[in-house]
Amino acid sequence: MKQKILILPETLPEYSIVWKDEPAFPVDCEEMTGWFIVPKIGEKLVWGMYDLPSRKLDVSYEMAVTGPASVHGLEGVSIAARVIQPQPAVPGKEPMSDAVEASTGGQEEWRFIAQEKDGYTRFLSAEHIEGDERVLTTFLDGDAFMDNWGFGEDNCGSPVHLESAGKIRRSGAELTTGEEKAFMDVAGRCDVTLDGVLHETVCIMDFGMYVDGIISEQYVNREGRTVLWRRFNRDDWQADRYGKKWSELLPGNERITVNGQLYVHWYDCLCVR
Fold this sequence. Notes:
This protein is mainly β. It has one domain (about 15-270). About 10% of the residues lie in helices and about 50% in strands. The protein has four helices and 18 strands. The strands form two sheets. The protein has a 16-stranded mixed β-sheet that branches. A two-stranded antiparallel sheet has the order 2-10. A hairpin with a 5-residue loop joins β3 (about 45-50) and β4. The radius of gyration is 18 Å and the shape is globular. The relative contact order is 0.18.
């Protein structure tokens, strides 16, 4: 049987998001946080990051679960990830070059051991090559691992089962939350039409769980797979580094407000399975 070819479009397809006045359905999302692959034998995907407003593909990742693996006595699966840089590469002066660098860690290949257990998914180790040296970090390496790959207290991981806890109230582009600390919750039910195809989804929003000042919208279908992922920056996020607020850097990009604070849409991610 001929294998399916996994290819991302060079330009982000047009899409629309329609919020529904219907209860959000619960989902079981087994994907690894930030990397979209499910840690099960046979799983593979390609996912990529798209700049806005240019809509061009800046970088993509070819990922596959290659077999069973274990680290420090904990069993999981081995995941191979290969970075695919489009030509020409993102110029160093562009803000997206920082996003690409942050996601790749400056590496062309990664190998992870990950696990789904007790209703959570978690990374157990991450490995790459620097020059002639193979570098491995594991969940026992403290901040060196947790700052990049860990999630939750004692690396408990990301919960698989997700349903609305009512922490987010959304009216169009205005959001209100009662939470002062970082959290994530299901924000509502949406119809996402991507490249002419309708997807029934729920929107899972992350408010600063990894980085303060960052919000993500993850549109997940009934099968628990990500259809579209979108990132928003607080207007003053790292303004000293970039020299302007994001509303000045990206004046035409979509905006939302959270408890009166402005956030600006930066980039999107798409997956092909």
